[in-house]
Automatic annotation (TrEMBL), chain A:
The lineage of its organism: Eukaryota, Metazoa, Ecdysozoa, Nematoda, Chromadorea. It catalyses: N(6)-[(R)-lipoyl]-L-lysyl-[protein] + pyruvate + H(+) = N(6)-[(R)-S(8)-acetyldihydrolipoyl]-L-lysyl-[protein] + CO2. This is Pyruvate dehydrogenase E1 component subunit alpha. The keyword Oxidoreductase applies. NCBIfam families: PDH_E1_alph_y (TIGR03182). The pyruvate dehydrogenase complex catalyzes the overall conversion of pyruvate to acetyl-CoA and CO(2). Pfam families: E1_dh (PF00676).
UniProtKB/TrEMBL annotation, chain B:
Its cofactor is thiamine diphosphate. This is 2-oxoisovalerate dehydrogenase subunit beta, mitochondrial. One of its GO terms (cellular component) is branched-chain alpha-ketoacid dehydrogenase complex. It comes from Pristionchus pacificus (Parasitic nematode worm). It is an enzyme of class 1 (oxidoreductase). It is found in: Mitochondrion matrix. It catalyses: N(6)-[(R)-lipoyl]-L-lysyl-[protein] + 3-methyl-2-oxobutanoate + H(+) = N(6)-[(R)-S(8)-2-methylpropanoyldihydrolipoyl]-L-lysyl-[protein] + CO2. Its EC number is 1.2.4.4. SUPFAM superfamilies: Thiamin diphosphate-binding fold (THDP-binding) (SSF52518), TK C-terminal domain-like (SSF52922).
Length: 391, 362
């Protein structure tokens, strides 16, 4: 909400744009077992243009900051960046309505931000600080907000969960979908096929989304998958291929898909063709299995932010100054988040024992010496935070 | 964490320095019987060397897993594809249950399957295949089929920053299943000899490699083809007062604690590397405890239903009349493997030292 207000503020400062809505032609979708699909004629309002630009820029900038923090050894362990894939999350989010749910894998920083966390909560989680999304208990791969079920470290584990969440929606007659994301590598886990079968058998409002960024770690899609047409791999589950570098195409595809699911016709399987700029995680330079040239080429010709910026500028929907103003607020928001992520405190050590079970008696905790043990002081992190006056 | 700081009402600051590794590696020297020629290798190279020898001596041996064709994420399979070809060393898709099931099939028809599961934490999607298929094939077919040629290599253990899904030690999840053998080496010499034994063993084996040792553990490894028997423990240091059993990285932690106890407490500690968790060398441990009268078992995996429980139960029965104090277990706490709290979770030198003090003073 904060983000929207912010871009609105920017809009009111400059009203020089010629029109309040323009439309663009997006790349053809490819359809699987569908007679018709989303429109390739997509329109966008000024407000949305500014909002999408802000969201994509913020994610890009936040991920660069995360990369730097990692290199400065301020982030421990794993860190998977979303740079290059921003249009996927931003486009889907733009089509979502209240009550829709999302579940994804470990490449979850951008999603966490879009679904309600601040940049500070994301970066501070990476550095294990108390101000982090789960107060440092999860780290890079485990972040959550209401209706955002994470953040999963085990590749393929989230896919059936998405079907389960969607079942609840159907059961409660909600007009909602569960967006269930996975990578091209995860597409080969058997759980996807088990989940697809259940979803189709029970017509669940789940949208399986394969973010095909070309690689699962160091393995290119052709070397891992007998069919790289991921949108067709649900067989009896209808599918759509979408240019995942075009935020408007993504939004359009998801608006269409949501309607399709609302009519009780789900599930769907959508492939978003995208690209990851960084290595798989920070420990992978990302250049041993592809050329630097290839990465440069994508940056030059398919970048989701540059492409979008060109469009909204050349159509006079927004002005250069407006975008510059957004860049400035994004920069300060991320800088501020970095400060928090590097200076905030950490949860006290007794949080090691919180959130183990919901209703067991307090466990014994060892004190400064092994003889000295006492009962777990707090069963829940929430109670610990409350005791510190922080919840 | 002192009681006073537990009552702390403000968030504590992170120490400026990052936590150094929680142990000091203690290299071993290989006995002369394993051959005179030696090569300096780290644990990763020793594992690579064992697979190289296995593939060179067994034309049916295959190596596969996620990204192994390029050397694997830990570089353990580097060079094997160039040497043995793409039909013997290859990448699999990302599908652990499929990898395990496929490997069982390969082994059941009589070939040697060396499958890599990148992290022990990812072995759970393959758990059904390993527990229900691999472990029971021989038994349920009355010996007609088996998947003896199967070895599953997986990494295990803490690395300082692995958090929930890159740190676990799942050995006890498998020791509860008759039909499997489970081995964890403490260093390069052991890794090479034990891995060759696993690969050539007529029963399915799970070989857990402590990933923190891959680069850190360097030894003069015998260059030839040798094996170290499965099911035999090794007494690394003899002592009179208390026996400590550990495996993998924890061997180095307890060795350090043993040294400390000798210096500070004048206690003589016997250190045993169990190395083979299933089957395990009961005789070796029982003999030691009969002599010392005291036993401490230490592992990184959580205390509850960890393999330490099995050892404690067996030894209290076999050595009941020799025991001078209750058997102690110094293990990971019963929590998921934590992210920022790893240093508090681990059974550190200090916790082991403390247990030594407690047992001798009992
Ligand atoms: C069960 C399991 N196996 C293996 C891994 C290690 N791993 C993490 S990410 C990854 C590649 C996944 O690729 P993809 O699904 O394409 O997602 P991307 O990283 O491209 O977003 C692998 C092999 C894991 N985390 N979990
Ligand atoms: Mg991928």
């Amino acid at each position: 909400m904060f983000k929207v207000l912010q871009s609105k503020a920017v809009v009111s400062l400059a009203r020089r744009a010629a029109s309040n809505e323009v439309s663009f032609q997006s790349k053809e979708y490819k359809l699987h077992k569908l007679d018709n699909g989303p429109s390739t004629q997509v329109s966008i309002s000024r407000d949305d243009a500014l909002k999408f630009y802000q969201q994509m820029q913020l994610i890009r900038r936040m991920e660069s900051a995360a990369g730097n923090l990692y290199k400065e050894k301020k982030i421990r362990g794993f860190c998977h960046l979303y740079s290059g894939q921003e249009a996927c999350a931003v486009g889907i989010k733009a089509a979502m309505t209240d009550g829709d749910a999302v579940i994804t894998a470990y490449r979850c920083h951008g999603w966490t931000y879009l679904l309600g966390s601040t940049a500070t909560q994301v970066l501070a989680e990476l550095t294990g600080r108390i101000s982090g999304n789960v107060h440092g208990k999860g780290g890079s791969m485990h972040m959550y907000t209401p209706n955002f079920f994470g953040g999963n470290g085990i590749v393929g584990a989230q896919q059936p969960l998405g079907a389960g969440v969607a079942f609840a929606m159907k059961y409660r007659n909600q007009k909602n979908v569960c967006v269930t994301l996975y990578g091209d590598g995860a597409a080969n886990q058997g759980q996807l096929f088990e989940a697809a079968n259940m979803a189709k058998l029970w017509n669940l409002p789940v949208i399986f989304v394969c973010e095909n960024n070309g690689f699962g770690m160091g393995t290119a899609v052709e070397r891992s998958s007998a069919s790289t047409e991921y949108y067709t791999r649900g067989d009896y589950v209808p599918g759509i291929w979408v240019d995942g570098m075009d935020v408007l195409a993504v939004r359009e595809a998801f608006r269409w898909s949501k309607k399709y699911c609302d009519e009780g016709r789900g599930p769907l399987m959508i492939e978003l063709a995208t690209y990851r700029y960084s290595g798989h995680s920070m420990s992978d330079p990302g250049t041993s299995y592809r050329t630097r040239d290839e990465i440069q080429q994508v940056r030059k010709t398919r970048d989701p932010i540059t492409g979008f910026k060109d469009r909204i500028l050349s159509s006079n929907l927004v002005t250069e100054d407006e975008l510059k103003a957004i860049d400035k607020t994004v920069r300060s928001e991320v800088d501020d988040a970095v400060t928090h992520a590097t200076t905030d405190g950490v949860l006290p050590a007794e949080a090691l024992y919180t959130d183990l079970y919901a209703n067991t008696p307090a466990q014994l905790v060892r004190g400064a010496t092994a003889e000295e043990t006492f009962a777990q002081p707090f069963l829940r992190t929430e109670d610990l935070l409350k005791s510190m006056g922080q919840a | 964490m002192a009681a006073s700081s537990l009552a702390l009402k403000t968030a504590v600051r992170l120490p400026a320095r990052r936590f150094a590794s929680h142990f000091t590696y203690q290299p071993s020297v290989a006995p002369a019987s394993l051959g005179a020629e030696r090569t300096k290798m780290n644990l990763c190279q020793a594992v690579n060397n064992a697979m190289d020898i296995a593939m060179g001596t067994d034309q049916s041996a295959l190596v596969f897993g996620e990204d192994v064709a390029f050397g694997g994420v830990f570089r353990c399979t580097v060079g094997l594809q160039d040497k043995y070809g793409k039909d013997r060393v290859f990448n699999t898709p990302l599908c652990e249950q499929g990898i395990a099931g496929f490997a069982i099939g390969v082994a059941t028809i009589g070939s040697t399957a060396i499958a890599e599961i990148q992290f022990g934490d990812y072995i759970f999607p393959a758990y059904d295949q390993i527990v229900n298929e691999a472990a029971k094939y021989r038994y349920r077919s009355g010996g007609l089929f088996s998947c003896g040629g199967l070895t599953i290599r997986a990494t295990c253990g803490a690395v300082g920053h692995g958090a929930l899904y890159h740190s676990q030690s799942p050995e006890a999840n498998f020791t509860h299943t008759p039909g499997l053998k489970i081995v964890v080496p403490r260093g390069p010499i052991q890794a090479k000899g034990l891995l060759l034994s696993c690969i050539r063993d007529p029963d399915p084996c799970i070989f857990l490699e402590p990933k923190v040792l891959y680069r850190q553990a360097v030894e003069e490894v015998p260059s030839g083809d040798y094996s170290i028997p499965i099911g035999k423990a090794e007494v690394l240091k003899t002592g009179k007062d208390v026996s400590i059993v550990a495996w993998g990285t924890q061997v180095h932690v307890v060795s350090e604690a043993a040294k400390l106890a000798e210096e500070k407490l004048g206690v003589s500690v016997e250190v045993i590397d169990l190395q083979s968790i299933q089957p395990w060398d009961e005789d070796c441990v029982a003999e030691s405890v009969t002599k010392t009268g005291r036993l401490i078992i230490s592992h990184e995996a959580p205390l509850n239903s960890g393999f330490g429980a099995e050892i404690a139960s067996t030894i209290q029965k076999r050595c009941f009349l020799s025991l001078e104090s209750p058997i102690e277990r110094v293990c990971g706490w019963d929590t998921p493997f934590p992210h920022v709290y790893e240093p508090f979770y681990l059974p550190t030198v200090w916790r082991v030292f403390d247990a030594i003090k407690k047992t001798v003073k009992y």
